[in-house]
Amino acid sequence: MNKKNLKRLVLKGKTAVFIDWANVYGWKKSLKRSIDPKKLFDYLKSYAEIVDIGFYFGEDDHPKSKKFLSETRKIGYKVITKPVKYILIAEVDGQKIYRRKCDFDMETCIDVHKILNNAASFVFLTGDGDYEPLYKLLIELKKQVIVVYTPGHLGKEIQAMKKGVFKIELENLMDL
User: pLDDT at position 4, please?
Assistant: First the structure.
């Protein structure tokens, strides 16, 4: 996309951003490229209204994971972590196959609650449909709700929301 065609967010007052990194990381499948956390941070900090950027990602003992979280903190993100769970999904020829799992729905909701009276706008980088009740509550409280997603990564619950939530495809917004 040509940079001239990129849109800018119109934020209504103090804004908090919530990044579900596991979700954002998964966007590389449809984008055919990875999202650069530094470029994303620089883009978000270009908005004077953004006062808080939460970066939610599971923590495990793998050296690459520890290094990534350390680098993310150095960029300037407020990093929120908890231990990753490994869920057994199959056993093939005696080989156990595990899936990495670490949802941050509850932590995000708690953090939204903490800043609720100090922010007018909330930006979520996740297409996760589990956030629908939170979005509905924020809309009911007259807060601006913006969901940034990529094609194929927007839950049907969010797709079905017709009023109060602004749904923006990442590629229309930023060149990361």
Answer: 56
Q: How far apart are CA 70 and CA 109, in angstroms?
A: 24
DSSP assignment of 133-161: HHHHHHHHTT-EEEEEE-TT-S-HHHHT-
Averaged pLDDT, groups of 10, the chain, 176 residues long: 68 97 89 91 96 96 92 97 94 92 94 97 95 97 96 93 92 69
Query: Rounded CA gap, 77 and 54, in Å?
Result: 6
- pLDDT at residue number 1: 45
Exposure string (b/e) for 134-151, b if CB count within 10 Å is 16 or more?
bbbebbeeebbbbbbbbe
Its domain, for residue 35, covers: 11-172
Judge whether 98 and 87 are in contact, CB under 8 Å. yes
Residue 91 lies in a domain: yes
Could you tell me the two tokens for 66? 């520890």
CATH number for the domain that contains residue 47: 3.40.50.1010
